[in-house]
Each structure stands twice: as C-alpha cells, then as structure tokens.
Amino acid sequence: TSYTVSYSNVNTDCFSDSSSGIPASGTSYTLTGLEEGTQYSITVTASLGGNSGTLEGSTTATTLIAAPSAPPSSVRVSVNSSTSITVQWGSVECRHHNGEITGYWVRYGVVGSSKEDRSMLMVSRDSGGMATIVGLSKETVYTVQVAAVTSSGTGVYTNPLTFETPDSQ
C-alpha cells in the first residue's frame, strides 16, 4: 500500500498554500511550513496496488493560533484639542493575522519615557481602526504605536509615530 497526502489552505483570499501528491511512507505524515491559525483541507489517498483500487479520505484541520506577525498599516494621528487626539490605523495584512484578531493595543507616552511609563488602551476589533485618547498634556511631544491582538497574544507594534499637542485649540 502506498499513500499520498494533499492539502490546501481553506482561506484562498489570503493564501495560495497547497500541495498535491506528496508521497508518504508509513501511516503518518507531518505537514510543515503551514501558516499559523489557519484552516487546511487535507486529503489522504491510499493506493492498494495492482488493480485493487484507491481509497481516499479527507478532513480539515486548523493550525495553532499565534500572535499577529506584522503590525497594522497606515497609522495616523489627528489632534482634536490640546489634550485629545484620534489615532487611526489600517488592517494587518491577512496572511499575518495568525488567527482571529480580537482587538488592538494602542500604546502612547511622552517622548523619552520608558515603556513602563507609557499608557495602554485596549480597543475592540469592531472599533473601525480608530481610538480617541483624552487627558493628554498641552504642548507635549508624544509617541503612539498600535499592535493587533489574537487569543494567543499581542503582535508586532507599529513604528512609533511622534506628534505634539498644541498650547490650546
């Protein structure tokens, strides 16, 4: 008896991962190089030799979820007043989601402050890629960063974006 393993990524909008006809020896095979947090359709074909025919079985399997492996795109800051800003961002490229994105962390602080002195704001995935931050100090230079979150953890933060709050507005 000989076996052949084929697989394809169910989410064809993001991925083109697929393989056909990987010869497998024995009754187990390990697929490698798969995307994290992704569902695959897997088919195993057993050839029974000679003219006795072929048996085929298929299943779906989902790889383990991981934190997003890339940051959100296009972060922008709009100054609303001397103490308030709106932060907007685009999506994480779908092949870097590594599972379902459940929300976003917005990290901000005064330029030169340590990570421990920065504030964090959790934003729902349904926020439309936007958060308003209030209570900032007038005439102060801040940085802001955004990272996507899955059930497995926080992903990669964007590069820091620097802005200054005005004296009054």
TrEMBL record:
Fibronectin type-III domain residues: 1-66, 71-168
Annotated Pfam families: fn3
Alphabetized Gene3D superfamilies for the sequence: Immunoglobulins
Entry keyword annotation includes NADP: no
Domain of life: Eukaryota
Name of the protein in question: Neogenin
InterPro entries: FN3_dom, FN3_sf, Ig-like_fold
Key words, A-Z: Repeat
